[in-house]
Specification:
Elements (H helix, E strand, L loop, with lengths): L7 H21 L2 H10 L13 H14 L5 H11 L6
Length: 89
Amino acid sequence: KLSPNLTNDQKELAKKKFQAISLAYTILSDEEKRKEYDETGDLYDDDEDLSSRKEGMKQWTDYFDAVFPKVTTADIDAFEVKYKCSDEE
């Protein structure tokens, strides 16, 4: 992961991941921004270089969607069946 021999695609992906993580940290570490995010789900920030541009927001949402796939009610139902009465419960 930290090899200096990354391809251009790997470098671009690493850059996008870093930007997304930086934006998340900026929002979640600020009490007011976090409260706004908790209430609205919006990821707006005052950072001109990242989130105020549509491209920055798209990078963040694309990365977030890739890391955390959408959860459907069918997924929840399947988890419930698997979890109920299991050793983990």
